[in-house]
Amino acid sequence: MATDRDGAIRELAALVARSGRVADVAALERAALEREEQGSTGLGAEIAVPHAKTDAVTAPVVGFARSAEGIEWGSLDGTRARLIFMIAVPEAAAGDEHLRILARLARALTDAGFRARLRDAPDPAAIMEVLAEIP
């Protein structure tokens, strides 16, 4: 995992591109970085949720990465982001779909136990099991 915010966004853009839902990885990166310039997506509690509304994606997609050391993300509580989710939606689906995904994710992430299970999951299969808990 990258050690800085911009590098993490680039890595997550490449990760979600493997889904087949990204038409232009560079444009997705730019959109997510431009969104960060409007205000940090570091939510605190060691969580960051960079996101982009862009036609660089053909369908909504979410990616996840962990950072053992944490990445400085400008969170209000001063914590470094260890759990990082990227949400990308096409412009046409930006309103409702983007908010629906963010709300579901936020509800799960308010649970300290969920965050701990996600942080401590030993491998990708275990991570997917924890993520499957999101309603």
Keywords for this entry:
135 residues; alpha/beta
Question: Can you describe what's shown?
Answer:
- The chain is an alpha/beta fold.
- The chain is globular and about 35 Å long.
- It is built from five helices and five strands, in the order ααβββββααα.
- Strands 1, 2, 3, 4 and 5 form a five-stranded mixed β-sheet that branches.
- It is 44% helix and 21% strand.
- The two termini are 27 Å apart.
- The mean pLDDT is 94.
Q: What's the helix and strand layout?
A:
Layout: H1 5-17, H2 25-38, E1 42-44, E2 47-48, E3 51-53, E4 61-71, E5 81-89, H3 94-109, H4 112-120, H5 124-131
Parallel strand pairs: 2-5, 3-5
Antiparallel strand pairs: 1-2, 4-5
Helix pairs in contact: 1-2, 4-5
Describe what is shown at a glance.
By secondary structure, this protein is α/β, with parallel strands linked by helices. It has helices spanning 5-17, 25-38, 94-109, 112-120, 124-131, and strands spanning 42-44, 47-48, 51-53, 61-71, 81-89. A hairpin with a 2-residue loop joins strand 1 and strand 2 (47-48).
